[in-house]
Specification:
By secondary structure, the chain is α/β, with parallel strands linked by helices. 44% of the residues lie in helices and 14% in strands. The protein is built from eleven helices and nine strands.
């Protein structure tokens, strides 16, 4: 019987480089090694373009944009060192995770030129420059400003497509994160307008040969299924899009959590579990 390897295409946030992570990068990599991962993509968050897009925890720590840019440079250098140091124990891909607010796309292109990452994860955490995954209040505020939750979904997938077209990231992260605080997301995804955008974006992902991550962090936050929700997973399988587990781990305790569950879900739906690599 085939036992799929443990991998993470979207993981490895660490406290030196992420204000809401718990453990060091070396500890994170050690946890991946201890858990027997075949390979892992370390995908730290990109630094913000301006003060406007700092997160509250970054503001509370007194982190300036310049300081976070310097921190990101240290991250890239250190991760390259660990990539070489641990090469005989685990394959490490050095990457970073994007944003989609104003100015982010040209800045990502500049970061790519400066640091030459192995790959990037294209993620959407803001819609119309408003954060949507920080707390229910922020989510509701974004929805209300756009005309309701359905409008939020429509804007989310439109901005996601813009990011995909502009950056062609090797991995599209937590594709349906927009449902994070929506208890009626099953009904929402049956909306013809939303479904049309989901299908459009999936077809573009297929055409560009990108990967979707099965983001397991949702399960650690009380969700009943990861990102992607099963109806979207079924469409991805139909379109032949590779789906690869991503733990989106922010602590050593999150490394490997729900991996068996995630792999079992993909196997049940008939996905290829030889895992397409992002680089």
């Amino acid at each position: 019987m085939h036992h799929p390897a443990w991998v993470s295409v979207h993981g490895g946030h660490s406290r030196e480089f992420c204000a809401h992570a718990a453990d060091t990068l070396d500890q994170m990599i050690g946890a991946y090694i201890d858990q027997g991962y075949a390979w892992v993509g370390i995908t730290e968050h990109m630094p913000p373009v301006s003060d406007r897009f700092r997160y509250p925890d970054e503001v509370a720590l007194g982190l300036t944009v310049e300081a976070m840019h310097q921190r990101f440079a240290r991250y890239m250098a250190l991760c390259r060192q660990y990539q070489a140091r641990y090469a005989d124990r685990i394959t490490i891909f050095v990457g970073f995770e994007t944003e989609t607010y104003s100015g982010a796309i040209p800045f990502v292109k500049d970061l790519r030129k400066e640091f030459s990452p192995d790959y990037i994860v294209g993620s959407v955490h803001h819609v119309a420059n408003m954060p949507i995954d920080t707390c229910p209040a922020d989510y509701q505020a974004a929805a209300e400003s756009l005309g309701g939750v359905e409008a939020l979904y429509l804007h989310y997938f439109d901005e996601q497509l813009e990011m995909i077209d502009a950056l062609a990231p090797a991995v599209v992260g937590h594709f349906d994160l927009v449902r994070i605080f929506d208890t009626d997301y099953g009904k929402r995804f049956r909306s013809p307008a939303i479904q049309a955008r989901v299908r459009r974006n999936l077809e573009r992902i297929r055409d560009l040969g990108l990967i979707l991550d099965l983001n397991l962090a949702a399960l650690s936050k009380g969700a009943t299924e990861p990102y992607l929700t099963e109806p979207i997973l079924l469409q991805a399988r139909e379109l032949g899009i590779p789906v690869v587990p991503g733990d989106d781990a922010h602590s050593i305790h999150a490394v490997g959590r729900h991996m068996d569950d995630g792999i079992a879900r993909l196997m049940k739906l008939g996905f290829d579990t030889s895992w397409t690599r992002p680089a």
